[in-house]
Structures are given as C-alpha cells and as structure tokens.
Write a structure and sequence with these properties.
Helix content is 52%, strand content 12%. The chain is an alpha/beta fold and 208 residues long. The protein is globular, with a radius of gyration of 18 Å.
Length: 208
C-alpha cells in the first residue's frame, strides 16, 4: 500500500542516518506492527558491526506503551546494554511530566525534541513564526534534568531554533549529555560548546 511504502522510506532514511553517525536512531511514530520491521533492521545493523547504536523509543502515552515496545525489542533480540541504550522520547508536554514515573529499569535517559515540544505546547501542526527558546521550555528541560537518575543521560534536539547559543548555554549549565543540530551547523555548535565550556570553567577562578 501507499502508506506502507511511505513507512518503508522513512525507516530507511532513519537507518541510513544511524549508519552514518553510528550513534542514535530515533523511532518513527508508528504502531507496533510497523515498529517490528524497524527493530528487526536495528538488530541486523548491530550484527553488521554498528555496535555502538542506541535507540530513541516512539512517543508513549504511559508506562504500558514503553513496556510493549520493550517486549517487542526483546523478541527481536535487542536488550539494553552499555552499547545499546534506550531513551524515552519527550516530544509532548505530558510526557515530560510522566518521565518521573518511569523506573530506571525502563530507560537510560531522555531525548528532548525541542521543536516538537514547542509545537505541542502551542497546539500547532508546524512552526511558521520564528522559533525561540522561551522560559516555559527552559522549565520543562530543567524538570527532565531534575528527574534523571544519577547516571541518566539527556539528549536535546535544538534543530530549527534561532537562539541556539542561549539554549546551549542553558544546557551546559545543567550538565546535559548531548545535543542534536542541523548537519550544516555542526562545526558552529561545536565551537559554541567549546567556548561555553571554557567560560564555565574559568568563571569560578575569576571570582577568587
């Protein structure tokens, strides 16, 4: 069917990106039957040598959804490990507040998609105006960080935001694990992160 063809194209695009970067694969928002094919291909990728590959789960409504996803993962031979971490997808406000309900045995951390989170906050299907990192979003990001386990990780997608520097400064101050940005902006983001880290290290010395 046309829908199945479209799903296959999206799956292949996600997997191709994972092959290139060999790090994070973000599940498309599909129901369990389509995800079974996706998880099977993730398993095949790891068997071909892409061992350091982690997974962002699909959007979830409750702990039961995540449990179902994990059962499907297990049935495809995939289990959490030091080289296969599972991150909860926080692209809706309600999921941010549900994050604290998740046991440490369910996920290794969180993936925060800022653009989708802001769209959900505003109740819009796409962003037409300038995309700014507003105070309400900062509060949500801080809430996630406060509910991470001691060794939990948080990956933040800052793609499409105008004021990326202020976002990065906020994330560094809270010790977030990593960021996702446009491929064309990788070098600039690296420079900004390096500058902000050096600034954070040197500031205490200035106060002495």
């Amino acid at each position: 069917t046309k829908e199945n063809d479209q799903q296959t194209e999206v799956l292949e695009e996600v997997l191709e990106k994972a092959r290139e970067k060999q790090d994070i694969a973000v599940c498309p928002p599909y129901e369990l039957p389509a995800l079974e094919k996706f998880f099977k291909q993730i398993y095949n990728l790891r068997n071909k040598g892409f061992r350091n590959l982690s997974l962002v789960m699909p959007d979830y409504r409750n702990k039961k959804d995540l449990s179902e996803y994990k059962k499907l993962l297990t049935s495809e031979g995939l289990r959490r490990s030091s080289t296969f971490e599972i991150l909860a997808n926080l692209s809706k406000t309600i999921n941010v507040f549900r994050f604290e309900e998740l046991e440490e045995t369910m996920v290794d951390g969180a993936y925060i998609d800022l653009i989708r989170l802001k769209m959900n906050m505003l109740g819009v299907a796409k962003m037409s105006a300038s995309t700014r990192y507003v105070e309400g979003m900062k509060n949500l990001v801080e809430y996630v960080h406060a509910n991470l386990s001691s060794d939990g990780k948080a990956l933040v997608n800052v793609t499409a935001f105008e004021n990326q520097k202020s976002i990065l400064e906020h994330l560094i101050n809270f010790g977030f694990w990593g960021v996702v940005c446009e491929q064309s902006n990788v070098n600039e983001v690296k420079k900004q992160l390096s500058h902000l880290e050096q600034k954070m290290i040197s500031e205490p010395k200035k106060r002495r």
